């Protein structure tokens, strides 16, 4: 569907933001929800069933956010590692709660077959502000590289470093929302001093594969697992989804490492980024969370069967 672009109120057209504009942007951000009550409290309920560790802590002004990872209780160094991440973009709600749903309802089914490592909310400050960026107006999902300027990304890189070569599958849970077009893409253009070109938001679920090492059968297995829960996004009239050619039903490709995307953080053979559309009239929040969990299960099932 198409949405109308909003004029972005910060900055001068064609001029990248300075520290002044970034400070003005930060001053406009307000807290809308609680990481503690909506995420940490749910993780705490899992403590008897999983290993929980604080792998870092974000300190932004007078706010402090513990970064939590949840592991299989029966972690076995001889088993393959499965990595699930959510909330890299904090505003993408079903990424966080889909990861938590997977842990609560499905993760223990893989006991003895794989080590499960889940980071449900990579960007808690952005979760509370319902935003894409961190307080420094940096997108963590373009920052997964050495000497990352985003502490959210750097902390996750440190967490997975010991298992970077043992991860067989990494699924990163995201959403594409109407606010991508009305707020976040205009903000990005303003921040970088570039023109904003209106686009469209696909109605439905889709995946982003790695163009440098595509795994089309794996992607289609995930699509098949999800379409029992929610609808798959069709290609637009140009055969594209958000400006990228559709290479298979519900699948586009990005160069994950080149773009510094979270899904490139390990050397996993199988990796994908999910994109749920929560603003669809055909999907509920519960359905979006269930679709994320179904994607995780389908991805694990395929990767363990095709090691």
Automatic annotation (TrEMBL):
One of its GO terms (molecular function) is metallocarboxypeptidase activity. One of its GO terms (biological process) is proteolysis. Keywords: Hydrolase, Metal-binding, Zinc. Residues 31-307 form the Peptidase M14 domain. It comes from the Bacteria. The keyword Ribonucleoprotein does not apply. Its cofactor is Zn(2+). InterPro entries: AstE_AspA_cat (IPR055438), Peptidase_M14 (IPR000834). Belongs to the peptidase M14 family. This is Peptidase.
